[in-house]
Amino acid sequence: MGIPLNLGTLLLILFYTQVHAGRIYGGKEAVPHSRPYMVLLEKAVSNNQKPGSCGGFLVREDFVMTAAHCNGGSIKVKLGVHNVQQEQGQEMLVKQAFPHPNYDEEYNNDIMLLKLEEIAVITHRVRPIALPQTKDEEVPKDCLVSGWGRTIRNVKQGSPVLQDLNVTLDENQLCSDNHQVCSSGLNGPSAGDSGGPLVCNGVAYGVVSTKTRNNTYIYMRIPDFLEWINDTMKN
């Protein structure tokens, strides 16, 4: 027997329903190679499914950070590219994926480290981005997101060139106690941009995770995961 739903319950369901983050709406083309930490992830999947893609960012010569929901199949990364249709950059496979052990399908702890099979060659186009130094660091409010996700609603193709968008973080009950920070509005990241960095003052403070249907964009708060990050890369 079905459970009767009143209007308030339906509104709550709609409010909390989440979808993968993956397209930058309202952004603009980045200055070519001005984000040398950006990484494109290409996933080869089984069962004749179409390959998927996510963003990521280089945090050490042999480690990329991204979202845990980007895990699955064989992952190839591309570094040092701006136009993915015209540039090859540095391509390499992922040796081992380390999704956060407490990640779940509700996008809690949606963060992952990827150990690369090779060490990236550091150039002006390929360079790691700094992470916060302590878990107590406050995340600045004015930040930047970048990615190759969709730029036009209802168009499936992502952008061939890297896009940038300035976002302002706001106070949101959804993000207050769950290792998350939020931005809101019509413009923001939404499926091919998942896993990209939330960059504030030149430091990666967050990982693009998901969004609610009321256009709240959710990012994992990197300072809360520093102990796990350092232990994983050390071991």
In DSSP terms, counting alpha (H) and pi (I) runs of 4 or more, how many helices?
2
State the end-to-end distance: 51 Å
**How is the largest sheet built, in terms of strand order?**
9-10-11-14-13-12
Query: What overall geometry do the principal axes of the alpha carbons give?
Result: globular
- Please give the domain count: 1
The amount of beta strand, in percent, is 35-45%
Give the helix/strand layout.
Layout: H1 7-16, E1 18-20, E2 28-29, E3 38-44, E4 52-60, E5 63-66, E6 74-79, E7 90-99, E8 112-116, E9 142-147, E10 163-170, E11 180-184, E12 197-200, E13 203-212, E14 216-221, H2 226-234
Antiparallel strand pairs: 1-13, 2-10, 3-4, 3-6, 4-5, 5-8, 6-7, 7-8, 9-10, 9-12, 10-11, 11-14, 12-13, 13-14
Overview of this structure, please?
The chain is mostly beta strands. It has one domain: Thrombin, subunit H (Beta Barrel). It is built from two helices and 14 strands. A six-stranded antiparallel beta barrel has the order 9-10-11-14-13-12. Strands 3-4-5-8-7-6 form a six-stranded antiparallel barrel. A hairpin with a 3-residue loop joins strand 13 and strand 14. The N terminus is likely disordered. Pfam families: Trypsin. Its main location: secreted.
Give a quick rundown of the structure.
One of its GO terms (cellular component) is extracellular region. This protein is mainly beta.
